[in-house]
Amino acid sequence: MTSPNDDRFDWTAAEADLSADAEVVDLAARRRKPTDSVKSFTVDLDDEADDQEADTPPPVDPPHVPAPSAFASVLAGKTATRRPIVPAWLRSRVDLVTAGRWAFSHYTHVSLYHLTRSPKYTLRLAWRAPFGVARVLGATVRWVSDAEGIPVRLAAVRREDAELYLKLSRQRDARVRWRGIVVTAVLLLGVPTVAVLMALAGSWQRWAILAGAVALLGLAGTPKDKPLLDVAAVTPRARKLSADVVTRAFLAAGLCKVDDPITFPMPIMRDGPGWRAVVDLPYTTTADKAIKRRTELAAGLDLDEVQVWPERVRGTSGSARRLSLWVADEDPYAKPSGLWPLIDRGSVDIFAPFPFGQDQRGRPIPLLLMFTSLLVGAIPRMGKTFAARLPVLAAALDPIVELHVYDGKGGQDWRAFERIAHRAGYGVRDEIVEALVEDLRALVVDMNRRYDTISTLPPDLCPESKVTREIAEKRSLKLWPVLVAIDEFQRYSGHPVHGDEIVSLLTELCKVGPSVGIMILLATQKPDGKAVPTDLRDNIGTRFALKTMTWQSSEAVLGAGSYPAGYDSSRFQRAHKGVGILLGADDSGAVEEAVTVRTNFAKTAHVETVVARALALRQKAGTLTGHAIGQAPEQTTSAGDILLDDILTVVSATEPKVWSETVVARLAELRPDVYGGWEPAQLAAALKPHRIPVGRQVWGTDPTTGKGANRKGIHRDDITNAVTERNRRRKAG
Ligand SMILES: Nc1ncnc2c1ncn2[C@@H]1O[C@H](COP(=O)(O)OP(=O)(O)OP(=O)(O)O)[C@@H](O)[C@H]1O
User: Fold this and answer.
1) Between 569 and which of 103, 225, 554, 607 could a Cys-Cys bridge form, CB atoms 3.0 to 4.6 Å apart?
2) Alpha-carbon distances of 206 from 88, 195, 217, 636, rounded to whole Å
């Protein structure tokens, strides 16, 4: 895969300029007079020193360096940064491919456009041919009669200059004579020649000559303001950057002043489908400030902001005030995005980045999911599901990754994964939600086991105390990567009974799971604090916000502080499907600055293709498990069973009968996330499947009043019997 860094800018020139800048600063400092503040650095050592310091403050500038000789300057010139012989765009495969693709599609379009209009053009030529004849005849007559000389001869007549007039007339007579001879000769020779040729020619040749003559005469008869061909492509409004245009934009955006302007450390140049200007802001202005003023910069450039991309230049060639401004020729997201490159061939190493989309300049943007989690949020129909499926498709193409796929909507979008997923669930029917809860509970238990296993591994095998590919491939260790993908997450997190537990289990998994290979992917069309509580969101390392309605929803996905930092997904247009702000995914997996990405395209038919390939890979590797091979989840504790065990925990053997209200109060204390808010009626409903009677009247004492009373309650023996029965059933298989 092409690394996104392949065609990054060559900043060597910038470095050279930086050092030049540094010299300028030093020289300026050297010229400055010592100030009072400089004097205040002096220390009273003794009187003598004191006196000295009063006269000569300690030097703060470096010692004087003599100006270089002319010869040294010549040598220095030899070390100057050389501009590349082959332009950057020709050396970049991506730029070349972009240009090649554009040329191919453009000329194909233009050719087809004109081809379909060829009958219209033929009729147009035929209609214009008689006008062409008239024009040719008129031009010939004017030429033979020396019409161009008429104004001069008339001027001679007006000035009554007989001598000049006679001279001009003689010249005209001579011209008319020889031009008349030429025309007569052409007619005498040409007409019979054409007639003979026509007589000798075959019928198609005659037609060809006729067509050629009509075409030529038609072209001759074409008025200047009505060209023969229609316009096949309207060139979009592109802004060619120049120093003046850029300076005006920065002035308009209030990022510099006329007497303190921006400077250009390198020439403005063509970069991909747009222009790039690198500017140094005044010393008092940061590049981050300029990024936040993107809209104002766009206004200053008189462009839509979707074409304007300010970026900070980092590293040794950068500076906190150095900004790279890329201006696209046209809306970079108005075109359809390319297909996901792994649809028909290729596999994935989940420990490495995989293709996800392209940035505004068409450079590939990879995504690394290993050791992180991903949150995708958007309003409906903006490409959330399409975006969320890409990482799952990538994981599917690595046969060691165990997939757990849930879709709260239950449509067709995720059905294909059933064939390879270890666990899969569609919709929000009770049994599906319960299965999800059980799956997550089991994963939390497994996560702890994974940590135990890792802690026993020798340091040479596990140097960083986290899963590596080498470890993950050892099936006996059971440390293979696990991806839990949940689309329409708001339908599960908002579940009245299990929602809170689902959120708390996922928070735990996002918090602690990544190091041991557990990845979580959540997608929601309701990105707010209710659907994805802050505690859960804050533990998700990578976030992708497609179009949202408000900047608050954008922040709900990208995290607090993203809006003031200049990232707002509500600014995308409805036409920008699959375009979003990706935060926290550079190729090392570290949380980095946000990039705007247009995801690669993979519709449901493509998903089927990839899943078929993933199935073959998994069959070959022998890694198909669970749902994919019809294996039900291992018989672990079910929700109801936990309840039975929990009741035995909170009701001791010395209490044979307890009021239901006492039991729910104690359960809520034991597991507030599961039983918080339970009423006796809910307890009754939960115990119903175990055939435990809860309508019995039980004698007890109210702890607040100290009075005894008969109220609805349970018998501990009923619970013990149900547990014995359950254990017997389990043993019997
Ligand atoms: N990268 C893309 N490029 C072009 N079109 C895209 C892209 N991604 C998605 N789309 C288009 O956007 C439409 C909506 O996509 P998708 O089903 O993923 O939306 P959604 O946000 O999941 O909607 P919902 O919430 O209703 O399920 C799709 O029909 C698809 O054609």
Assistant:
1) 554
2) 54, 11, 16, 91
Residue 578 near ligand 1, beta carbon < 6 Å: yes
Tokens read off for 178: 């020889």
Phi, psi of 489 (to 5 degrees): -60, -30
Cβ count within 10 A of residue 272 = 23
Give span(s): CATH 1.10.10, the chain: 639-732
**Alpha carbons 322 and 21: distance in angstroms, whole number:** 12
Ligand 1 centroid–CA 602 distance in Å is: 10
Please, where are the H alpha helices in 397-498?
430-455, 469-472, 490-493
Binding site membership of 599 for ligand 1 (Cβ less than 6 Å): yes
Q: Are strands 696-701 and 708-715 parallel, antiparallel or unpaired?
A: antiparallel
Residue 235 has a pLDDT of 58
Highest mean pLDDT out of 4-13, 448-457, 699-708: 448-457
How many residues are there in the chain?
733
The CB density around residue 637, as the number of other CB atoms within 10 Å, is 15
Pairwise CA distance, residues 464 & 454, whole Å: 10
Report how far residue 542's alpha carbon sits from residue 557's, in angstroms, rounded to the nearest whole number. Answer: 10
Q: Is 579 in the pocket of ligand 1 (CB under 6 A)?
A: no
Atom 5 (ligand 1) nearest CA? 577
Name the DSSP letter for residue 157.
Answer: H
3-state class (DSSP) for residue 279: strand
Residue identified by tokens 């019979």 is 192
Q: Where in the chain is the domain with CATH 3.40.50.300?
A: 354-629
CA distance 491 to 496: 10
Distances in Å between the Cα of 321 and the Cα atoms of 24, 133, 314 are 17, 68, 10
Sequence-distant (≥ 6) Cβ neighbours of residue 319 within 8 angstroms = 18, 280, 287, 313
Is the confidence at residue 2, as pLDDT, over 70? no
578 CA from centroid of ligand 1 (Å):
6
Confidence of residue 581 (pLDDT cuts 50, 70, 90): very high
Burial of 396 (0-12, 13-18, 19+ CB in 10 A): buried
Residues 144 and 136: beta-carbon distance below 8 Å: no
Q: What percent of the chain has pLDDT over 90?
A: 41
pLDDT of 383 reads 93
| pLDDT at residue 227, rounded to an integer | 85
Residue 77: what pLDDT? 54
- Lookup: tokens for 456: 């026993």
Distance CA 170, CA 175 (A): 9
| Rounded Cα gap, residues 677 and 669, in angstroms | 10
Closest residue by CA, ligand 1 atom 7: 578
Of 565, 500, 494, give the one whose Cα is nearest residue 526: 494
> What CATH architecture does domain 639-732 belong to?
Orthogonal Bundle (1.10)
- Residues annotated in a binding site for ATP: 378-385
Q: Which residue's CA is the closest to the ligand 1 atom numbered 30?
A: 383
CB of 577 sitting under 6 A from ligand 1 = yes
- Going by C-alpha positions, the residue among 487, 393, 406 that lies closest to residue 440 is 406
- The Å distance, Cα 603 to ligand 1 centre, comes to 9
Q: Which pair of structure tokens corresponds to residue 521?
A: 């992917």
Q: 598 CA distance to ligand 1 centroid (A)?
A: 12
**What are the φ and ψ backbone dihedral angles of 473, each rounded to 5 degrees?**
-80, -15
Q: How far is the CA of 589 from the centre of ligand 1 (A)?
A: 26
20 within 8 A of 321, measured Cβ to Cβ: no
The domain made up of 354-629 has a fold known as: Rossmann fold (3.40.50)
Nearest-angstrom CA–CA distance, 98 and 679: 64
Q: How far is C-alpha 95 from the geometric centre of its chain's CA atoms?
A: 18
